[in-house]
Design a protein that fits this description.
elongated, mainly alpha, 92% helix
């Protein structure tokens, strides 16, 4: 039973990481479309930190 919980926890962590990555990518797209250079740099740094 513990193995099942561990696997479930890992899947949840991976899904969470993927959702954060998708959110960052979308925010970066919007920042680029708006030409917000400061936000672009901040989001790129956040992506490097989270990967």
């Amino acid at each position: 039973m513990n193995q099942g919980r561990l696997q479930s926890s890992r899947k949840a962590q991976e899904a969470h990481r993927e959702n954060i990555q998708k959110s960052l990518e979308h925010r970066l797209q919007v920042a680029r479309a708006k030409g917000d250079e400061q936000l672009i740099r901040q989001l790129e740094a956040e992506m490097r930190y989270s990967s």
